[in-house]
Amino acid sequence: MSSLLDTRVLKLNSLYMPFDTMSVRDALCDLFSGVVEAIYVNDAGQYESHDFTSWSQLTEYRVSHEAEWIHTPRLTFPVPRIVRCMDYDDIPVYEPRLTRAGIMERDHNTCQYCNRKFSTKELNIDHVMPRCRGGKNTWTNLVCSCIACNVKKGDKTPSEAGMVLLKKPIKPIRKMKFTLPRNTKTYSGWDKFVSEIYWNTTLSDS
Ligand SMILES: [Zn+2]
């Protein structure tokens, strides 16, 4: 049975960049020993940093009622959901994950056929070699495409459709933006640090 102590806490480096998650249990140990500070996003959207003492003095009056609380014989305090490793300043480098968001990010939300920029919702992921003709879900076969270009291209290759790709699609060398593993439960305030987390369903080829 998983307990509250096994649920996840978002881990930031000293530059407030997310790079991992950890259990509440580990986060409390690190907070107690001063390795991390707890970050609280207040109602105005500002970040407050707390050491163990000031965190354990947060009261129900200040923290939203959605917060979960830890009760010890002497203290009652909210579960930290974001912590910052004060002495860790490496810029996290991630193995890029093949996701819809990853393709959008690589292509800068730009249709790779007509070179126009769109919102994420207005873009499709196009298979350069169409799926029905054996095209795979790979970095080198997926590009951003606007709906008009997508319709025009249909089940043809770019050359058959008389269309030209802006550039050859490649696998990004590294990805700067942290993405949560699929199905990770998220908490209040995480969206300030992790963007587009809901787009990170892996485009598997199964
Ligand atoms: Zn287009």
Report on the architecture of this protein.
It is a single chain. The chain is built from four helices and nine strands. The protein is an alpha+beta fold. The strands form three sheets. It has a five-stranded mixed beta sheet with strand order 2-1-7-3-4. Strands 5-6 form a two-stranded antiparallel ribbon. The longest helix has 9 residues, at 24-32. Mean pLDDT is 87; it is low at 196-201. The protein binds zinc ion. Zinc ion (ZN) is lined by residues 111, 113-114, 116, 145-146, 148-149.
In short:
The chain contains four helices and nine strands; from the N terminus they run ββαββαβββαββα.
What is the secondary structure topology, with strand pairs?
Layout: E1 8-12, E2 18-23, H1 24-32, E3 36-41, E4 47-50, H2 52-56, E5 69-71, E6 76-78, E7 82-85, H3 100-106, E8 123-127, E9 142-146, H4 147-153
Distance between the termini: 31 Å
Q: Can you count the beta strands?
A: 9
The profile of the biggest β sheet is:
5 strands, mixed
Sheet with the most strands: spatial strand order: 2-1-7-3-4
Bound heterogens, unique: zinc ion
Instruction: State the low-pLDDT regions, or none.
Output: 196-201
Report the radius of gyration as a whole number of Å: 22 Å
Strand content: 15-25%
* Number of DSSP helical runs: 4
Give average pLDDT, whole number. Answer: 87
Order of helices and strands: EEHEEHEEEHEEH
Main structural class: alpha+beta
What helical percentage do the residues reach? 10-25%
Q: What best-fitting shape do the alpha-carbon axes yield?
A: elongated
Oligomeric state of this protein: single chain
